[in-house]
Structure formats: C-alpha cells, structure tokens
Automatic annotation (TrEMBL):
PANTHER family: CTP SYNTHASE, CTP SYNTHASE 2. The keyword Oxidoreductase does not apply. PROSITE patterns: GATASE_TYPE_1. This is CTP synthase. Belongs to the CTP synthase family. It catalyses: UTP + L-glutamine + ATP + H2O = CTP + L-glutamate + ADP + phosphate + 2 H(+). It holds the Pfam family CTP_synth_N. GO terms for biological process: 'de novo' CTP biosynthetic process; pyrimidine nucleobase biosynthetic process. Keywords: ATP-binding, Glutamine amidotransferase, Ligase, Nucleotide-binding, Pyrimidine biosynthesis.
C-alpha cells in the first residue's frame, strides 16, 4: 500500500480536496486502484448536524455516512463509492479511544494523546485503506489522505504527529507528503509572494514532515523565477514545485498536474509499476475539459434555496447540473435565488430585492428546489413551485423540494388551504407531509433515514423511469426525517399528481410526476450524490433536457444523447 498525504498551508479552503482528487484521478488513469480518506480535525462525530454555512453541504454516502463535501469530490473524480469511515474526525478518534478505555483495553495505563490517539489514527488509516471502493471489489493500491485545515492549527496537531510517526512505519518508498500552499499576488505591487509558502513549509518541517511536492495555488500562472525561489528556500528540486492557477473548470486540474510531470515523479518516488504516459481515462478528461471550454449554448436554471450566499452549500447539486449540461453540450448558467426574497414580506421590506428575485425566476429556463431543513424560506419555495406548475416551467424538487411540491398542490389544486408539513405546523388539519414512524425526535445526529435505498417504479408510464433506462427500480441515497402522508396520496392522483415510485414496501412515496406538464418531477432521494462527470444523474438530466426543449427528442431516440 502506498500512502499520499495532502496537507495545506497559509489558508484553509485552498483547494486541497480538488488537488487530492486530481492526484487520485491521474494515478487511476495509470491503471492503479485508488481510495481516499479525509481527516477533519473538528470534534463533531460527523458532519450531519452542521449548518451548510459552516463547511458547505453535508455529503451522504451509500452506507448512510454524513460526511465532508470533499468525499463527494473524491467519488466524482475517481468514480468510487466510499464509506463513513473514510471520513475521520477528532470526535470519532476520541470516541473510539474512550470506548476502548471504558472497555478496559488500556488497563493500568494512562491514556494520552501520544501514543494512544496517534496510534488510533494510524490504525484507522491502515485498516480503511484496505477497504475496496471500486465495483471490482479489489483491495486498493494507493490511499490519498487529505488532512483538513492548515498546518499549525492546534486541533490538527495530533494528526500531524500521527503521520510523523507513520512515515517511518510505512517506510519512505510507501509514503509521500504533498503540501498545498498559497502564492498571493497583492494588487498594490502585482508581485507574486513566496514568503507565506516558505513559512508554511518551515512550520511543517518543524513538526517532523518534509514535503515531497509543493503545490502552489495562485490566481494567475506563476512565473519560473518564483518556482526557482520556492525551490531554493524550501529545500526541494524545481520539478518538485507544482503550480496550479485558477482555471475555468476543475476538469483542468488533473491535466495541469500531468503536464508538470507528476506521473514520472510518483513512478520514481513510490516505485510504482506504471508507464510514464496516462491511459485513455485522462484523455477523456482532456476532451471533457476542452468541450466544457468550447460550449456556446447556455441553459439557465434557478436554484431556489435558503443557503445561497455560499455556493459550497449546494456543491453536489451544482455538479449534477453541470454534468447534465455538459452531456447535452450546453453551458450551465446557475442562478442562486434566496427563497425568502420571493416572499410577500420581502416586498414590503425591500421591494427591489423582491422584484430582482422574481425577475431571475421568471427568466430561468428551469427551476430547482433542493433539500433543506426548517421553516425559513419555505413560503418563497412554495411560490416558486406554484410558478413552475402554472407556467409549465420545467421543475425538479429534491427531498424537501418534493415535499413542498405536494404541499403546494394540496393548497392550490385540492383547495386544502392549511395543508402543510408537520415539520412546520404540527397541528395542521391537513398533514400532507408527516414525520416518519422511526424518526427519533430526541437525538438529531444520525437519526434520519440515511443512505442508499431502493425505489420501485409502480408504472411504466413515467418520464423518470424512461430517463433511468426503463429500469424496474433504482437505488439512490436518502437523507430525510419527513415523508409524504401515504393515506392521502389517492386524492392527489385523482387530480393528476402521480406517485410513480415508492419504497420496496410500497408505503413510502419516493417520486412524483405531474400530468400534462413538460417536466414537473419531485424525488424524495438525493440523486446529485450519485452523479458523475461522465454519468449524469437522470433526474437532473431530465430537467436540463426539458429546459432546453430537447426532452421529447431524447426520449424518442431511446434515451441516447445526440453526438
């Protein structure tokens, strides 16, 4: 097993996740089996109870793990399926060690950060690195490990110390450290500064880790003189300094790394049994990146949510839309609309914001209402759904988006004016969305219906079934506490809102489709978590096809994309 540790310096959010994913992609393109581990130094057990404004979206895995969004990057880039133990947190490690202490495993000893916590980290990494993540179920050969945060953070110290020890346990030819740093360019001088990188590498060395590669992030391409300066002051060869500037799409990053000789370096440094040249997989990435940059036709989608100030809050949704747009040769124009700004209360408080939000919604080719929790912004989402339904705009509702589509239909088509979800109004006379019987109202962490579940189509006359390749069932990832009230579904079906998919027992409603509408679809699951650059998610692909007016032609071709 070869281990590649990716650390970060100067600032967090520098792009370690994309760089780690890109390195994995390059090595996979050379015919190696690659897995990935993300270490988050926070004390939370998992990411499940975070606000999306804390660390971006919560990504859900097949096994129900609620994890950091970087695991989503790994899955999309490497086309693998990870597990919750591929995300290590301080909370998980300490809980593991404390449980062992209570069990009596350390009887007679003082339990300390060194060696007990550091040993637990190393043991966890070695065990998880062996778990198969590809469809062929073979043990991985390379494990890419991303250490969250920046070098010098107090909460990350036990992990840095663990890897300081681990480099000797694994042996030099099996362990490599990549340090990602920032090369800022102040507007006042326009000069690219190397001092932050020098200080960051010095801090890393002081903690016992020496970088094998220094990846320098910058806004613009870095000059050769800067490369030589970093090489000299950071005690590495010039070919060990890699530059990654801001690019038009993340698909370009693996190509930039490969152009700077990273395959040849890894082959020598880790004694890898590979050729110097990448295989067809990286050629596909190159073609995809070139195609992305040449797109001329534009499709605009309005994303109506309440976490619109930070794009990472809907990272997987954006990627799923982007994958679908690329598949049909369109450039995606994603317009984020804060759902509260569509509400009547905003018109009274700030009419400019209100009208700007509605202007965006009205000019969009399609409307998407993603998942979420809490009552804030729900009335605005209902307004957007009503607009999509009455004006025959292509619409996709995901999780809460589907539930609100049911609420909107009940209020405006069944005339149940107080219809609501018990999440927002526990005393409503028409509870069209209810909490699930197994939902635990006490603890919030890990108590939802999580992970991959089967959805069975109950009719052949379904747009989504055709988009999924006319399969009898699909398996997608879920994350919800509430569900459509199964006792009232017949009332909706009488008026044309069809529940075309349900769970294996037939009690839990999973997919809705509206009759006599170009594309009005709601799904209880989160199809965005399974979307891949070369395998777009069918519900999102359907939305883009409908928004560009090509859905019917696509279905008539037997769900084959035109060349």
């Amino acid at each position: 097993m070869k281990y590649i540790l990716v650390t970060g310096g100067v600032i967090s959010g520098i792009g370690k996740g994309i760089i780690a994913s890109s390195i994995g992609t390059i090595l996979k393109s050379c015919g190696l089996r690659v897995t990935a581990i993300k270490i988050d130094p926070y004390i939370n057990i998992d990411a499940g109870t975070f606000s999306p404004y804390e660390h971006g979206e919560v990504f859900v895995l097949n096994d129900g793990g609620e994890v950091d969004l970087d695991l989503g990057n790994y899955e999309r880039f490497l086309d693998i399926n990870l597990y919750k133990d591929n995300n290590i947190t301080t909370g998980k490690i300490y809980q593991h060690v404390i449980n062992k202490e209570r069990h009596g495993d350390y009887l007679g000893k003082t339990v300390q950060v060194v060696p007990h916590i550091t040993d637990a980290v190393q043991e966890w990494v070695m065990n998880q690195a062996k778990v198969p993540v590809d469809d062929d179920r073979k043990e991985p050969q390379i494990c890419v490990i991303e250490l969250g945060g920046t070098i010098g953070d107090i909460e990350g110290m036990p992990f840095v110390e663990a890897f300081r020890q681990f480099q000797f346990k694994a042996k030099r030819e099996n362990f490599c450290n990549i340090h990602v740093s920032l090369v800022p360019q102040p507007n006042a001088t326009g000069e690219q500064k190397t001092k932050p990188t020098q200080n960051s590498v010095r801090a890393l060395r002081g903690l016992g880790l020496s970088p094998d590669l220094i990846v320098c992030r910058s806004a613009k391409p870095i000059e050769m003189a800067v490369k030589e300066k970093i090489s000299m002051f950071c005690h590495v060869e010039p070919e060990q300094v890699i530059f990654i500037h801001d690019v038009s799409s993340t698909y370009r990053v693996p190509i930039l790394l490969e152009e700077q000789g990273i395959i040849k370096y890894f082959k020598q440094r880790l004694n890898l049994p590979i050729d110097d040249q990448p295989s067809d997989l990286l050629m596909k990435w190159k073609k995809m990146a070139c195609r992305y940059e040449r797109l001329l036709k534009v499709c605009s989608i309005a994303l109506v949510g309440k976490y619109t100030k930070l794009s990472d809050c809907y990272a997987s949704v954006f990627k799923a839309l982007e994958h679908s747009a690329l598949a049909i040769n369109y450039k995606l124009d994603l317009m984020y609309i804060d759902s509260t700004e569509l509400e009547r209360s905003t018109e009274a408080e700030n009419s400019v914001k209100y009208h700007q939000a509605w202007h965006k919604l009205c000019k969009a080719d399609g409307i998407l209402v993603p998942g979420g929790f809490g009552i804030r912004g729900t009335e605005g989402k209902l307004q957007a759904i009503s607009w999509a339904r009455t004006k025959k705009k292509p619409f996709l509702g995901v999780c809460l988006g589907m539930q609100l589509a049911v609420v909107e239909f009940a209020r405006n088509c069944l005339n149940w004016k107080d219809a609501n979800s018990t999440e927002f109004d526990p005393d409503t006379k028409n509870p069209v969305v209810i909490d699930m019987p197994e939902h635990n109202p006490g603890d919030l962490g890990g108590t939802m219906r999580l992970g991959k579940r089967r959805t069975v189509f109950k009719t052949e006359n379904s747009v989504l079934r055709k988009l999924y390749g006319d399969e009898m069932f699909v398996e997608e990832r879920h994350r919800h506490r509430y569900e459509v009230n199964p006792e009232l579904t017949h009332r909706f079906e009488e008026k044309g809102l069809k529940f075309v998919g349900h769970d294996t027992e037939g009690n839990r409603m999973e997919i809705i489709e509206l009759e006599n509408h170009p594309y009005f679809v709601g799904v209880q699951f989160h199809p965005e978590f399974s979307s891949r650059p070369m395998k777009p998610s069918p519900p999102y692909l359907g939305l883009l096809l409908a928004a560009t007016g090509t859905l019917n032609a696509y279905l008539q071709r037997g769900c084959k994309l035109s060349p």
